[in-house]
Write a structure and sequence with these properties.
CATH class of one domain: Alpha Beta
Number of helices: 5
Structural class: alpha+beta
CATH superfamily of one domain: Sporulation related repeat
CATH topology of one domain: Alpha-Beta Plaits
Distance between the termini: 198 Å
Order of helices and strands: HHHEHEEHE
């Protein structure tokens, strides 16, 4: 019978017993080397720190203890020696002699007063003179609003008839002047003070 070489499977290669054991085991990774450099740096730091501590302790022991100086006592002032006074007593206190006190008690003060105003009156005060009676009555009413009393007098003269607004009579001239100031505040500044004409 003829052999079919085309569909024939290839024979598996044979392995030697030495390679057979190696193929079954997985390759082990190489062992890590310990970090020598990091260990050296750590050791150097630790030794430097220890050396620094030793230097600090040694310098503290070497420094001398501070000497606190005691404050010097303040010199006390010398007592003031007063000169010895004589045993003579003090002179008597002088007595004050004020003369004006006695003089003022018995002194009379004289005040010069002006002599009382003699009444030469009576006086009257004429504030206006109009041709028409209505104007005179209007001023009389204006004066009455100030609480003062006036009258209207009719007089006949060479120039005709006049209506005079008159206030009074006043016993003293000062009373008439007081009323004149009151009327001046409301604009009536034409008042004249004369002797009373009845």
């Amino acid at each position: 019978m003829p052999k079919d070489y085309a569909h024939r499977s290839k024979p598996k290669p044979r392995r030697s017993p030495a390679t057979k054991g190696r193929a079954s085991k997985k390759p082990t990774p190489p062992a890590k080397k310990p970090p020598y450099l990091a260990m050296l740096i750590a050791a150097a730091l630790i030794s430097a720190f220890g050396y620094l501590l030793m230097q600090l302790d040694g310098s503290a022991e070497r420094q001398p203890a501070e000497v606190v100086a005691e404050p010097k006592p303040k010199p006390q002032p010398k007592p003031v020696t007063r000169p010895k006074q004589n045993d003579d007593p003090l002179p008597p206190k002088p007595q004050e002699d004020w003369q004006y006190i006695d003089e003022l008690e018995n002194k009379e003060v004289v005040v010069d007063l002006p002599p009382p105003e003699e009444s030469q009156g009576p006086y009257q005060m004429q504030c206006a003179s109009f041709r028409s009676q209505s104007q005179a009555d209007a001023m009389k009413a204006k004066i009455a609003f100030q609480g003062k009393e006036a009258m209207v007098r009719r007089s006949e003269g060479k120039s005709g008839t006049w209506y005079k607004v008159v206030m009074g009579p006043y016993e003293r001239k000062r009373q008439a002047e007081k009323d004149r100031h009151v009327l001046a505040r409301i604009g009536i500044r034409t008042c004249k003070i004369w002797k009373w004409q009845g």
